[in-house]
Amino acid sequence: MLEFILAALVLIGAFFTLVGSIGLFRLPDFYMRLHGPTKATTLGAGAILVVSAIYFSLRSETPSMHEILVTLFLFITAPVSAHLMAKAALHLKLRTIERTQNKEDSSA
Amino acid sequence: MSLLRQALPHPLLSLTLLMLWLLLNNSLSTGQLLLGGFWAVLIPRLTAAFWPESVRIRRPGVLLRFVGIVLRDILVANFIVARRILGPVEALRPGFMRIPLDVQSPLAISLLANTISLTPGTVSCDVSPDRRFLLVHALHVTDIEAEIRQIKSRYERPLQEVFT
Lengths: 108, 164
Prior knowledge:
Largest interface: A-B, 49 and 37 residues
Order of helices and strands of chain B: HHHHEHEEH
Radius of gyration of chain A: 18 Å
Structural class of chain B: mainly alpha
Number of strands of chain A: 0
Helix content of chain A: over 70%
Oligomer: heterodimer
Order of helices and strands of chain A: HHH
Distance between the termini of chain B: 24 Å
Strand order of the largest sheet of chain B: 1-3-2
Number of helices of chain A: 3
Number of domains of chain A: 1
Number of strands of chain B: 3
Number of domains of chain B: 2
Largest sheet of chain A: none
Strand content of chain A: under 5%
CATH topology of the largest domain in chain B: Alpha-Beta Plaits
CATH class of the largest domain in chain B: Alpha Beta
Number of helices of chain B: 6
CATH architecture of the largest domain in chain B: 2-Layer Sandwich
């Protein structure tokens, strides 16, 4: 029973990671593409890490805690790298698609 | 008390370092506890120059609830963003938002920016040099004013209560 739940969680994680990559491929401008990998991955990677923690804790009898660290580092580094890329994009004045609202704010 | 202050100028940092060490080693043995404790005392002293002011958490309860709200929002927003990414791209209305900041401490601002980036659908792009505005890009936003109000009341207010 537990294995089914864990397997389902792995699939959910894989699905959201895939959606992140699809976003990277489909979305029309740089700022929108930033959303794909930084976002869908939080839940995608999160779900897989939860499964990993539960599965290896049960198998080896000693709780497996490395996953907490992985989650922590992911949650700290993902927004920071997204922020730096966005900052670089603003600096280079990358073009945004026509219908972006409040475009003038990005140059303020 | 003052002796303790001297030995541990940044108690939160020390505690975090000890926890990190124990998690990295995945062990609670006496040896690891002692070694972790050693790092927890030594590292904050060596890096003291990078921490001009010590961090103080004023209302831990509010902080815990904030973390809970953020985790729930990440979960919910992931589904929404997944549907938007898979749906018709032409229907998306991306936009920039300038969020006026009430929080002033650098730590609170970076936590707010990180929170905004972590919740799907919004990425924080830049802080104005005077730290009064945060520039945020949204994947899809229909009512910019409402979105800004929501971010301010949901994320900024709790952070302001916890860190001053």
